[in-house]
Amino acid sequence: MIGSDEDWVLFDTNILVYAHDGKSPFYKKAKRLQELVNDGKLKAAITPQNLLEFYSTITNRAKYKNSVTPKEATLEIKRFLISPFELIVPIGNELLTVMYLIDGKNILGRRIFDVYLVATMLSNGIKTIYTANEQDFASFSEIKVVNPF
């Protein structure tokens, strides 16, 4: 657990993908954010879920123009694992937190995975997420949502 340090942020998967995709209009900004982490100027975390989503996206030839081979994607993930990004993991209470977070909200389909990401953040003391998909997290007052673009 990282604690309640307000300086920590979690990178949503889209930030990782944009930093990987040199043709993305968000590439330069996303790459700069990644460099800030690598230079120790920004304290950022990722989760196994982020890395699996990253793999799924960058290897999906049907949906991602600049797809890579599984071997290349695996190499990218290994780079994240040895980088200054903090890999946070679920600690065991996330399903209860998910039930709390979805209570009274109309969470459907794949959105449940965003809720699980929020639960993992909260259980690790992280209250801020960087994402280009603000709407995916807007209903959670427990966290701060920042679109760095």
Model description:
By secondary structure, this protein is α/β, with parallel strands linked by helices. The protein has a single domain (9-135), classed as Rossmann fold. Helix content is 44%, strand content 9%. It is built from six helices and five strands, in the order E-H-H-E-H-H-E-H-H-E-E. It has a five-stranded parallel β-sheet with strand order 3-2-1-4-5. The longest helix is centred in the last third of the chain and has 13 residues, at 111-123. The protein is globular and about 40 Å long. The chain starts with 8 loop residues before the first strand and ends with a strand. The model has no long low-confidence stretch (mean pLDDT 95).
Query: What is the number of E strands?
Result: 5
Mean pLDDT: 95
How would you characterize the largest beta sheet? 5 strands, parallel
In helices, the fraction of residues equals 40-55%
Parts with pLDDT < 50 across at least 5 consecutive residues? none
Pairing-aware structural class of the strands and helices?
Answer: alpha/beta
- Would you identify the CATH H-level superfamily? 5'-nuclease
Please tell me what the overall shape is: globular
Order of strands across the main sheet: 3-2-1-4-5
Q: Helix segment count?
A: 6
Whole-angstrom Rg: 15 Å
Give the DSSP E fraction (strand runs of 2 or more residues).
5-15%
Task: Find the CATH topology.
Answer: Rossmann fold
Provide the domain count.
Answer: 1
CATH architecture: 3-Layer(aba) Sandwich
The CATH class is identified as Alpha Beta
CA-CA gap between termini: 28 Å
N-to-C SSE series? EHHEHHEHHEE
